[in-house]
C-alpha cells in the first residue's frame, strides 16, 4: 500500500514591496510651479510684444514668477527630503539627500549664470528670457533625476516635457515665447496634479 505525499499548496510569486517614497504627494509642488507659470508667464504674454493686450508693469510678471518659483523650490526640497525620510534602503536615503540639496545648488548656479551672462554682455533685458528658460530647464532635469530615483514615471515625463518646451520656446520671439511657457508649462503642471491624485489613489 503506497502512501502519496500531499501536494504542497500553491504559493504565489512574491510581489515586490512598494517603496514608501512612491506614496509622496507632489501636488503642492505641481500647483505652486503651475501658478508661477500661469501668472508669471501669462502676464508677460499679455503685456509684451508689438501689440500688447494689457498695459502691465514689466516687474509684475517677474515678481509673480519669482514668488511662485521660490515657493515651489522650497516645497520641492521638502518633498525630496520627505521621500528620503520614507526610504529604508541606505542607497535611497543618500539619493534623497543629494536630490534635496540639488534644488538649492541648481538655482544658485542658475542665478550666477544669468547674472554673469547679462552683466558681461551688458544686456540686462536678456534676464526676461534667460530666467524662464533656465528655471524650466533646471526644474525639468531635476524632475527627471527624481523620477528615475523614485521610479515615478509621471515625475519623469513632466520633467522631460518642461525641459524641452522651456528651451524650445527660445525659438520664438515675444510674446510667443511666453505663451508657450504659459500654455505648455502651466497646462502640464495642471495635468500632472490631476494624474498625481489618480496615481496615489491607485496605490
In summary, what is this structure?
By secondary structure, the protein is mainly alpha-helical. Helix content is 73%, strand content 0%.
Detailed description of the structure:
The structure is a single chain. With 203 residues, the protein is mainly alpha-helical. 73% of the residues lie in helices and 0% in strands. It is built from six helices and no strands. The longest helix is centred in the middle third of the chain and has 31 residues. The chain starts with 26 loop residues before the first helix and ends with a helix. About 5% of the residues have low confidence.
How are the SSEs placed, and which strands pair?
Elements: H1 27-47, H2 58-86, H3 90-120, H4 127-150, H5 153-168, H6 176-202
- Rg computed from alpha carbons, rounded to a whole number of angstroms: 22 Å
Tally of contiguous helical segments: 6
- Report the mean per-residue pLDDT as an integer: 83
Share of residues in strands? under 5%
Encode the helix/strand succession as letters. Answer: HHHHHH
Q: Keyphrases for this structure?
A:
mainly alpha; 203 residues; single chain
Amino acid at each position: 500500500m503506497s502512501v502519496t505525499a500531499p501536494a504542497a499548496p500553491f504559493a504565489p510569486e512574491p510581489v515586490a514591496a512598494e517603496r514608501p517614497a512612491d506614496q509622496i504627494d507632489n501636488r503642492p509642488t505641481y500647483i505652486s510651479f503651475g501658478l508661477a507659470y500661469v501668472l508669471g508667464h501669462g502676464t508677460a504674454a499679455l503685456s509684451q510684444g508689438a501689440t500688447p493686450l494689457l498695459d502691465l508693469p514689466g516687474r509684475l510678471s517677474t515678481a509673480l514668477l519669482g514668488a511662485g518659483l521660490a515657493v515651489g523650490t522650497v516645497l520641492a526640497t521638502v518633498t525630496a527630503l520627505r521621500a528620503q525620510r520614507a526610504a529604508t534602503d541606505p542607497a535611497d536615503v543618500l539619493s534623497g539627500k543629494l536630490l534635496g540639496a540639488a534644488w538649492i545648488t541648481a538655482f544658485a548656479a542658475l542665478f550666477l549664470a544669468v547674472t554673469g551672462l547679462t552683466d558681461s554682455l551688458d544686456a540686462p533685458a536678456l534676464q526676461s528670457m534667460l530666467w524662464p528658460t533656465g528655471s524650466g530647464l533646471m526644474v525639468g532635469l531635476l524632475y527627471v533625476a527624481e523620477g528615475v530615483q523614485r521610479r515615478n514615471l509621471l515625475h519623469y515625463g513632466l520633467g522631460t516635457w518642461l525641459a524641452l518646451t522651456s528651451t524650445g520656446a527660445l525659438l520664438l520671439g515675444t510674446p510667443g515665447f511666453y505663451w508657450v511657457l504659459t500654455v505648455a508649462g502651466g497646462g502640464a503642471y495642471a495635468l500632472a496634479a490631476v494624474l498625481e491624485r489618480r496615481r496615489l489613489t491607485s496605490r
